[in-house]
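This week, look over our next protein:
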Amino acid sequence: MDNLLKVMEKLRAPDGCPWDREQTHQSLKTNLVEEAYEVVDAIDSGEDSPLCEELGDLLLQIAFHCVIAQESGRFNYDQVEKGICDKLVSRHSHIFGNDTAKNADEVLKLWQANKRKEKGQPTVTKAMEDIPASFPALMESCKVLDKAASVGYGSKTTTEAFDNLETQSHLVKKEIQEENPSDMETLIGSLLFSLVDVCRLLKIDPEIALHKTVKNFKNRFSLLEKQWLEDKEKGQGKGQ
């Protein structure tokens, strides 16, 4: 990490790169998000080379922000590293403390409890309010449902969650049949939220599941379009 930080410090120096010198925390937000998504794509590829490269690009963003903050005396990389190490120790109190956790589910509950204690979140509601507003809706829904479930609120089984999903689906169908779309947005939102709850109990990330479905749809459509264009070229096309 020292080498990367030195490179970034050189690029940000008065005689460094004009583009790098102009960047701020705000201007780099999009870059950070894009690099994170590219890491996910590299993981999905199943190949080591692109994953190694994309992790480097993501690490660059961390170094970039650390150097920018260091220049104004706000914080530096050492503080960032110490912060995450301290957090890992305090959140894993079943390893570094006196708490116990028999399985992964208990570990997650303990993590959330320690997190609320550290952040001064006396209630689950406060923990929900502290979820970043920039999260995509599906991700935010997962976080909210997880926090509610940590205190026993919400569906306990997939059967219960599916029953609620069917209820919400029935309400949407009823609204469509009655041609009264005034509450349709709210009802669709409730339907999606219920589906996320099913995903939670099945331990499926809805964001990833939907992403894969969209990718499969594009692949299928590409094959159909290719066939249609070939048929059209042969004079057999029947229109779109």
